[in-house]
Write a structure and sequence with these properties.
This protein has 18 helices and 21 strands. It is α+β, with helices and mostly antiparallel strands. Strands 2-1-5-4-3 form a five-stranded antiparallel β-sheet, sandwiched between helices.
């Protein structure tokens, strides 16, 4: 069965036959006389041929086609010659022949048949048509002029619309949401089963009535009326919330009014879809209360909260975190601003901690400093957080908290400073006692010289060594950080040698760096002992004919190296080789041992009546950090 048969059999087109002009009073029929038919003249024939709508003329007795226009030829696919060899029954569906013959005897000046007829095109395709007929006299024959209107597409569209309406109603009836349709006068045009159930009113009793006529509360009626009118006037959807009292309690709904247009683009109806949001509102209320409690706890503890979507770009900070980072009102936090606020020394460690937490799915925990750009004030912050992942294992959020630990850090710094002060005081006391003990030993050794002049030289050498060590401990009493500048050590050693041996030591100083070269406390004794031995030897081992004993000590400092050059009159002992340890004596042997560690080297150069010793110091004998205030 084709589409047209389906439409007819299922009564999808209203089977109404309507006469649109008065019938003849005397009820003329097919057997009437020729005078009863209007003559189809030349002007009518021209209009017939030029009509854009399909027209035909057929003989009422033989039913043969007498004339067709171009529109008829185009619609049915026959040529004019082919039409003139056919009867109207040839283009009428066989099942409609009886209906055609029944209508054939109903003669009138003008008759419109709205009952659709099934006609056959040359191709065999079935089309649905409506016919408007008039009986005429054509070339002396009783004939019928028919205007043929192809309504196949219209009926197909009506069927499609009917199917869509059925689909809509089937879908709407199975929705838990309320679905209703209102006309421009606010009358119900459609309601689904959810509306019927909620209002406890049968569906048929609501159709064609307004909410007011159904006895709904006036406030609800007024609210709906305003929303419906706005949707109609603006041609835009409108949202409203309303509540309805039920035996189990009040239910809250969120509704959308959606304007619908007719074929003329006029707003004809408004579709209403309402969703029950009672549980959602209760959940939102509970969530709001929970957030308020959390905010109170965070505020009471001074904790800041951050909830950041990934990838990190725009950040979400609470008020406490904004305050910690000195963020003005109206400025939105970003990852770039976060890095700017961090202390420069803490940016790289923090970046690595964030990357590790996201990569390894571990807890992010770090302490870093935040700098106020306006005042330069620094806050210490402890930050902790963790990434959240979706079902596919992709990190989607990075959330956590901040603690301001500035007071704790300040207390720790004060405790550390106190401990350092206490330690320094203890170290100074120990150094003072060691220095006094060494000086006491030196005094006892001097008494030995008077009683044993034969060993005076050996005792004086020992006294010099003790004094060099005592000198270092004496200097460290005044330096809480334990750093001693080379120029200070050199000057003290030279003065001690002059006092103990006699003679004069010239000092020279050249510095190519802004900060003085320093020796850490644990290395100062070794350096001072070695320098003392070299300066003492330079003054002591000079020829008798040289007169006054003289030596020259030059200190040259660069960025990572210090060089001390000691020159005096005299010659190196026969067979002397410091590098190999030959003929060096006990004192230089000890120096060779002390400076064998990395960072120190000594070179001896013997020329004509002159000896030059070059002592070079580098880290770790030199301190890595050079103290700008060391003396």
């Amino acid at each position: 069965m084709g589409e047209p048969e389906h439409f007819i059999e299922n009564h999808l087109v209203l089977p109404v036959r309507e006469s649109e002009s008065p019938r003849r009073a005397d009820g003329g029929g097919a057997s009437g006389t020729p005078g009863e038919f209007p003559v189809f003249g030349e002007q009518a024939l021209r209009e017939f041929e030029n009509s854009p709508l399909p027209r035909r003329i057929f003989d009422l007795e033989t039913l043969k086609y007498l004339a067709v226009n171009d529109a008829m030829v185009k619609l049915y696919g026959y040529s004019r010659e082919e039409f003139l060899g056919l009867t109207v029954l040839d283009t009428c569906h066989p099942e409609d022949h009886a209906a055609f013959r029944a209508a054939l005897i109903e003669q009138s000046h003008y008759l419109r048949h709205r009952l659709p007829r099934r006609h056959l095109k040359k191709s065999g395709e079935i089309i649905l048509v409506e016919l408007v007929s008039q009986d005429i006299l054509f070339d002396g024959r009783r004939a019928r002029l028919t205007l043929v209107m192809d309504i196949t597409a219209r009926v197909r569209m009506q069927e499609l619309l009917r199917q869509r309406q059925q689909e809509f109603e089937s879908l709407a009836d199975n929705l838990p949401d309320l679905v209703a349709r209102f006309d421009r006068s606010h009358r119900f045009v459609y309601v689904n089963s959810a509306v019927e159930k909620l209002l406890a009113v049968p569906r048929h009793a609501m159709i064609g009535k307004t909410q007011k006529e159904l006895g709904m509360p006036e406030a609800l009626v007024a609210k709906f009326a305003r929303s419906l009118d706005e949707a109609i006037e603006t041609a835009k959807p409108h949202m409203l919330e309303f509540d309805i009292e039920r035996p189990e309690g009040k239910r809250l709904f969120e509704a959308y009014h959606i304007p619908e247009r007719d074929t003329g683009a006029r707003i004809a109806t408004v579709l209403c879809v309402a969703h029950d949001i009672t549980e959602r509102q209760q959940a939102e209320l509970q969530l709001r209360e929970s957030r308020e409690r959390l905010a109170w706890v965070l505020n009471a503890t001074g904790v800041g909260l951050w909830l950041n979507p990934l990838p990190l770009s725009k950040l979400n900070w609470d008020d406490r975190t904004r305050e910690i980072f000195s963020l003005p009102a109206g400025v939105e936090p970003t990852i770039e601003l976060f890095w700017e606020r961090l202390h420069p020394e803490d940016r790289e460690p923090t970046r690595l901690a964030v990357e590790a937490a996201l990569r390894d799915r571990t807890l992010y925990a770090i302490e870093h400093r935040v700098v106020n750009p306006a005042t330069g004030a620094i806050r210490w912050i402890r930050s902790a957080g963790k990434a959240l992942y979706d079902a596919q294992g992709v990190a989607i959020r990075f959330d956590g908290i901040n603690f301001d630990i500035s007071e704790r850090k300040q207390a720790e710094a004060e405790r550390l400073e106190g401990a350092v002060r206490q330690r320094d005081a203890l170290v100074r006391e120990v150094h003072h006692r060691i220095k006094n003990s060494l000086q006491g030993v030196a005094g006892l050794l001097r008494q030995k010289i008077t009683r044993n002049p034969g060993i005076a030289a050996e005792i004086e050498e020992t006294i010099g060594q003790l004094q060099s060590v005592a000198l270092v401990y004496g200097l460290q009493e005044t330096r809480p950080d334990g750093l001693l500048s080379l120029v200070t050590i050199m000057d003290a050693i030279c003065s001690s040698a002059e006092g103990l041996i006699g003679g004069r030591v010239e000092r020279a100083f050249e510095r190519k760096s802004r900060r003085p070269a320093c020796v850490a406390g644990q290395e100062a004794v070794s350096v001072a002992f070695a320098l003392n031995e070299l300066v003492f030897n330079a003054l002591k081992h000079q020829p008798a004919e040289a007169g006054e004993k003289r030596a020259r000590v030059t200190l040259r400092e660069s960025l990572h190296e210090a060089e001390i050059c000691i020159t005096n009159r005299g010659r190196l002992p026969k067979g002397f080789d410091f590098a190999e340890g030959r003929a060096v004596g006990s004192g230089l042997g000890l120096v060779r041992t002390l400076l064998a560690a990395p960072g120190g080297s000594i070179a001896f150069n013997g020329g004509r009546n002159q000896v030059e010793v070059v002592l070079k110091l580098r880290p770790p004998l030199l301190a890595e950090r050079q103290d700008p205030v060391a003396r």
